[in-house]
Write a structure and sequence with these properties.
globular; about 30% helix; single chain; about 100 residues; Rossmann fold; alpha/beta; four-stranded parallel sheet; protein-arginine omega-N asymmetric methyltransferase activity
C-alpha cells in the first residue's frame, strides 16, 4: 500500500479531514501491515490504536512504532482479529482497515 502514493495519500487526507471522528478515540486497525493507517489515526488525534496483524509484518510494524516513539499510542498485537480479544483491555470506538486485494 505504501508504494501507491495516491491511495495512501487519500487515506491520510480522509482521516485528517475527519479528525473529529478520531480525536481521543480508541481505534482498531485490522490487518495493519506496516501500520501506516495506525500512524494516520494517531496524526488525526486517536488516543490509542491497536494495530492487529497476523503475519510476520507485525514484527516490522512494532519496530516502526518503536522507532517513531509511538509505543504509548500504537499497540501492535500479533494475531488474527478473531483471536485477540484478550489483548484489547478497553472498548474500541472505531475500526479501520485497508482490505483491498485480500482474497
Amino acid at each position: 500500500m505504501m508504494q501507491d502514493y495516491t491511495r495512501t495519500a487519500t487515506y491520510q487526507r480522509a482521516m485528517h479531514d475527519n479528525a473529529v471522528d478520531f480525536k481521543d478515540k480508541v481505534i482498531m486497525d485490522v490487518g495493519a501491515g506496516s501500520g501506516i493507517l495506525s500512524f494516520f489515526a494517531v496524526q488525526a488525534g486517536a488516543r490509542r490504536v491497536y494495530a492487529i496483524e497476523a503475519s510476520s509484518m507485525a514484527i516490522h510494524c512494532q519496530e516502526l512504532v518503536r522507532t517513531n516513539n509511538l509505543s504509548e499510542k500504537i499497540i501492535v498485537v500479533a494475531g488474527k482479529v478473531e483471536e485477540i480479544a484478550k489483548h484489547i483491555p478497553e472498548k474500541v470506538d472505531a475500526i479501520i482497515s485497508e482490505p483491498m486485494g485480500f482474497c
